[in-house]
Design goal:
Layout (H helix, E strand, L loop, with lengths): L2 H6 L5 H15 L3 H45 L1
């Protein structure tokens, strides 16, 4: 095991302590699958919403550039 891997197994590492906390919580809950499924759905819907925002922004920017090009054409005439 190299130094990089050993660092994650350190008992004082925040990463290790966080994983232990998560494992303890998961071990004591009866409906863990339900909670994880809800968390997965929330993350997927957030991702989908962010993709829609990005696509909307890109579409708006393309329309603005097209409008700007048409204005420049009108000024040249």
């Amino acid at each position: 095991m190299d130094e990089y891997q050993a660092r994650f197994l350190d008992g004082q590492s925040p990463f290790t302590l966080f994983l232990i906390l998560i494992l303890l919580i998961l071990g004591t809950e009866r409906d863990v699958e339900t909670y994880l499924e809800n968390a997965k759905n929330f993350i997927l819907e957030t991702r989908r919403a962010m993709e829609n925002v990005r696509n909307g922004y890109e579409g708006m920017q393309a329309n603005i550039q097209s409008f700007h090009a048409k204005l420049l054409d009108l000024q040249k005439k």
